[in-house]
Task: inverse folding
């Protein structure tokens, strides 16, 4: 447990520029939510389900972060602010993941077995995003704030929108958790408008050429 505490202190200090002194770590809800989950998950794995849920519910009331004790969480998870975050029972989270407030890693119904998403390593999930279903978000991917993800996302991708769609694929590995940038993300609506503008210009050019040809034909007659 001492190792987990040291790890959480390091992660919070690295990823939140607002922190000034190490002692401030003990004011972060993420710190208590994740440590509580480590304990609850141990009881869950030993089939002490009531105690596991009891610990997770106390943590939920104290931090505003709801993590089911059955969820599997890797190293270096950072939940910034955290209020309203929900992580389902069969969710799996890789290493060095960053999650912002209001995120839901949930299911889409009452399916049995695996029904929550698997999050790869070095993934950043923006505020208010919803990832619903038993699919994977690939390593080094970025989910834009407010997005609703309903299908699998490959590695090194940025996706935004409702429903979310891929707006950028990075050829090389880029760790979004290092920059924590939620602003410089392509706008899919603007991209579509640009495509329409290009198409309109092409059509205008074709119409102009046809009109010129028609004028010449009339002159010849």
Result:
């Amino acid at each position: 447990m001492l190792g987990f505490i040291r790890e959480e202190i390091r992660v919070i200090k690295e990823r939140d520029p607002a922190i000034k002194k190490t002692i401030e770590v003990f004011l972060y809800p993420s710190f208590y939510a994740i440590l509580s989950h480590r304990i609850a998950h141990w009881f869950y794995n030993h089939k002490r389900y009531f105690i596991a849920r009891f610990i997770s519910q106390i943590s939920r009331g104290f931090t505003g972060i709801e993590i089911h004790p059955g969820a599997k969480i890797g190293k270096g998870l950072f939940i910034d602010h955290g209020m309203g975050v929900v992580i389902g029972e069969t969710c799996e989270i890789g290493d060095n993941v960053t999650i912002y407030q209001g995120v839901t890693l949930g299911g889409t119904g009452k399916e049995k077995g695996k029904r929550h998403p698997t999050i790869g390593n070095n993934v950043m999930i923006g505020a208010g995003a919803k990832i619903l279903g038993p699919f994977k978000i690939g390593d080094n991917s970025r989910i834009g704030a407010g997005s609703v993800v309903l299908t699998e996302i490959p590695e090194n991708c940025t996706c935004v929108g409702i429903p979310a769609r891929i707006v950028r694929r990075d050829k090389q590995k880029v760790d979004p958790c290092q920059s924590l940038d939620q602003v410089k993300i392509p706008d899919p609506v603007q991209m579509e408008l640009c495509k329409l503008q290009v198409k309109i210009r092409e059509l205008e050019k074709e119409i102009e050429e046809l009109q010129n040809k028609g004028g010449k034909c009339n002159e010849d007659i």
About this structure: The longest strand covers residues 165-169. Residues 156 and 171 are 7 Å apart (CA to CA). The chain has five helices and 15 strands.
